[in-house]
Amino acid sequence: MSWNPGSPPDLSGRTYAVTGGNSGIGYFISEQLAAAGAHVVILGRNPERLRTAVAAIRGHVGAAAEVSTIPLDLADLESVASAAEALVRLGRVDALVENAGTTSPGRTRQTTKQGFELALGTNHLGHFALTALAMPVLKSTPGSRVVPTGSLISLLVKFDLDDLQSERKYSEFRAYGLSKHAVTSFGLELDRRLRASNVDVHCVLTHPGLCLDGGSPSREGISKPSRLARLSPITQGEDHGAWPAVRAATDPSAVGGEYYGPSRATAGRPVRHRATAADRDPAKAARLWELSEKLTGVVFTV
């Protein structure tokens, strides 16, 4: 179906959880969902930034916007478990939009609280555990969705499961790329397992394209347009970068296993894309799933 980013479906009565929804693309995902009438639950690390995001959404959408927050540090599995418990207590989650992550894990290899390479631990393992632990509320919400966020960097970095944590070879670019391969591979495998189990939860993937913070609309405490950020046909603001995730989370015609991104690859309206062959490989995905369970200590049964 034709999708108009400016006119999403009426989301009144629905609840959407957005990790990292207090800044960047995640903020605009949250704002757009709230503008369509949804209850938006923003998950993030910094309490002050969470409060700022809530105020910005209500200032732009209206004071009646239904927005709440849950503390979440994806680099700490104890925080992930607490956040998942809070999601389950909501009783309803129509989509878990897994937007948060680090794009800059550092010039030298760094680790999470549990000792995982920072990019992999934050972008993939944290979300893997969160999804598994929040599955009860997703299963109890008819037609719910999980929306992992991939990246075009997967086209530029080899998916190396033998060095997934960059222990033998590290660069910031490669570590980020490996983490996004893992995110996409996990999402596609999750959808395969959900289908096989005949569970009414669907995994629809997304990537935002190439976004510039300075090309985004002004939001107090969130974003400020920059004269230096000159948008071109291959770049877009973070408000437009939010479109694929909003479509993946809300489009009635979207189905599990689909992958949405900008129409011109890096910019444009959200359309269906295809993940890399490596990320679509079921054998690699099964191996990643087993490794993710072993590392996190979370048994993920769908």
Please give a structural write-up.
- The longest helix has 25 residues, at 172-196.
- Helix content is 39%, strand content 14%.
- The strands form 3 sheets. It has a 6-stranded parallel β-sheet with strand order 3-2-1-4-5-6, with helices on both faces. A 3-stranded mixed β-sheet has the order 7-10-11.
- It is globular.
- α4 packs across α9.
- With 302 residues, the protein is of the alpha/beta class.
- The mean pLDDT is 96.
- The protein is built from 9 helices and 11 strands.
SSE topology sketch:
Blueprint: E1 15-19, H1 24-35, E2 39-44, H2 47-61, E3 67-71, H3 77-90, E4 95-98, H4 118-139, E5 144-148, H5 172-196, E6 201-203, E7 205-206, E8 211-212, E9 236-237, H6 238-241, H7 243-250, E10 259-262, E11 270-273, H8 277-280, H9 282-296
Parallel strand pairs: 1-2, 1-4, 2-3, 4-5, 5-6, 7-10, 8-9
Antiparallel strand pairs: 10-11
Helix pairs in contact: 1-2, 3-4, 4-5, 4-9, 5-9
